[in-house]
């Protein structure tokens, strides 16, 4: 699976951006796609995940209510709509694909980087105050 992330940019506090992750090389509906981010000087962290076929989503507490992950299987694309952005959202955002199939009771497993098989290049989001 090849992943291409795009949509990053610079916005002011309270602004919005929509990131896109286009996948190729495998039937898109068969993979779970997650978003992670890495802020300057910090470790990469989980942001959101959309399970295969979009049957379930999960978010980091820091973005709940502000970010929405969705997918369009016909376009092989997963989106991350980011609203009410804050300076602390500044980071390089990465999309990743997992071939694993965790039960809904273990959805938190998708927050672990090592459970992802493929990674796209990052896209930079900068939020100024």
Layout of strands and helices, then pairs:
Elements: E1 2-6, E2 9-12, E3 17-24, E4 32-38, E5 45-50, E6 57-59, E7 67-72, E8 77-82, E9 91-98, E10 118-119, E11 123-128
Parallel strand pairs: 2-11
Antiparallel strand pairs: 1-3, 3-8, 4-5, 4-9, 5-6, 7-8, 9-10, 9-11
Question: How far apart are the termini?
Answer: 37 Å
Global Rg: 14 Å
**Poorly predicted runs:** none
Strand fraction band?
over 45%
Quaternary class: single chain
Shape: globular
- Annotation, overall tally of beta strands: 11
User: Which structural class should the secondary elements be placed in?
Assistant: mainly beta
| Biggest beta-sheet profile | 7 strands, mixed
Helix content: under 10%
Number of helices: 0
SSE series: EEEEEEEEEEE
Mean pLDDT: 94
Notable features of this structure?
mainly beta; single chain; 129 residues; 7-stranded mixed β-sheet; 4-stranded antiparallel β-sheet; 47% strand; 0% helix
Overview of this structure, please?
- The chain has 129 residues and is mainly β.
- 0% of the residues lie in helices and 47% in strands.
- The protein contains no helices and eleven strands.
- Strands 2, 4, 5, 6, 9, 10 and 11 form a seven-stranded mixed β-sheet that branches. The protein has a four-stranded antiparallel β-sheet with strand order 1-3-8-7, with no helix packed on it.
Characterize this entry briefly:
The protein has 129 residues and is mainly β.
